[in-house]
Amino acid sequence: MPAGTLYRGREGMWSWVAHRVTGVLIFFFLFAHVLDTALVRVSPEAYDSVIATYKNPIVNLMEYGLVAAILFHALNGLRVIAVDFWSKGTRYQRQMLWSVVGIWVVLMAGAFYPVLQHTLTTLFGK
Amino acid sequence: MSTAETSPVELVSSSQPHTARGLTADNGYVIEPPRTRSTKTPRVTRGNFEMWAWLFMRLSGVVLVVLVLGHLVIQLIIDGGVSKISFAFVAGRWASPFWQGWDLLMLWLAMLHGANGMRTVINDYAERDTTRFWLKTLLVTATVFIVLLGTLVIFTFDPNI
Fold this sequence. Notes:
Number of helices of chain A: 4
Oligomer: heterodimer
Distance between the termini of chain B: 96 Å
Largest sheet of chain B: none
Shape of chain B: elongated
Order of helices and strands of chain B: HHHHH
Helix content of chain B: 55-70%
Distance between the termini of chain A: 49 Å
Shape of chain A: elongated
Number of strands of chain A: 0
Radius of gyration of chain B: 28 Å
Strand content of chain A: under 5%
């Protein structure tokens, strides 16, 4: 690893890294998502055949990963706004990150069944 | 006798820039004085693009939290997730101008927010000028294409295709 790459570490840097990585992932998904939805202009069969690949268990698991990325990016984005606009934002940035992580864990637990129910009911029955 | 007459150091009031003139061997400036405007200086020397981009990321971010999380809650929880998605489902959704507007605003804000984020990433990691230029050209081309394609699809959708 080149010298200086780690910068300062801790919550501030790692939340920045995670925000950047999730942002890039979401951008590429958005690109693919507009293209797949555009197939409704081609034919109902073309659209439904691509959506069928999304019902694959592995793609369904990737969908759960996408929800994880979006939820972190949304919650941490609100923290970045608080750091920038709230006078005490920088003082509490660390506590706000752990609040973000806590809310993220709760929401991810809540999203587990709704997002993965297609795979769960396919593999284990209703 | 005042200090100003005997000191080799130029004394200036606290409201002026301190250049420590007179402290070097050749009696010059230690700190270069800030450039002053001349008649040839353009009235606007730089734009505020980066400030507006910074503000746009925060404003669009707040709106996108509502639009995208709303989209996820509706599609994945209320409407039953990927099992229920089909051409007929999309036709039902876009029969309403409200959902057309929701998706149109989400498309534009998300693509511009994402493209500006990618611009920041390119600026940070692509060190050569030509690399940066071509990556940004590719980014702008892809962004314009996706925004126009998505807009066209929302407005020209035909449920009886």
